[in-house]
Model the fold of this input.
Amino acid sequence: MALRASNQIRAETVDKRSLLRAHPFFKGLDEAAIDWLVPHAHSRKLKKGSVLFHKGDTGTKLYVVCSGAVRISCTSEEGNDAILNLIMPGDIFGEISLLDRGPRTADAVIIEESEIMEIERKDFTEVLRRYPDVAMRLIEILCSRLRRTSEQVEDIVFLSLPHRLAKTLLHLHQRSSSDEAPTKLRITQHEISQMIGASRESTNKQLREWERHKWLRLERNCIVIIAPESLKSLVPESE
Done:
């Protein structure tokens, strides 16, 4: 029994090290940083619909997405939702509360079966102290997300619905595992309408028009991008 338990622990350690080494955030970092993180990173497999945290919760963990997808959203007092981000494999999230010790700024819900690695604040902050490269990479992530948030606000103010929708679809397409079309985006029409600040009806009407042009295909809970170059023609050149 002891030998079996020892072998299981060794296999789990190897698996976690492989996941961390392959993850874009940790890839290329000092091996010593990975070795230090392995015993402090805890892997969980979560079903669709699982809630990781709610807005206002105390935040003590950083989350690393190995597979699946997570929706980051807020709900108004009237019950209307706004999707702030979709977290895909290769992303991290939960960094704001991790760093400033404040409450969670949004809800985090699993939208397809996922494998998530969790690292406690005390362990991750120790890694930041020991390995400055990790801190620099985290700063780059924060800056990138701040730029994206500013861009989303600007798009809602200045861009028409077709432009906003095309830009968001392309953004999700570029973040997918393959750069080639067709690319299946596991997102509902309701979710993407929340991302661009439009009604589901208006979003559906535009998607149906593009489907008739064979730029994309609508499937149950999915949007399949067939002609990304056609969508790109709608995005202002400055973008």
In short: Confidence is low (pLDDT under 50) at residues 2-11.
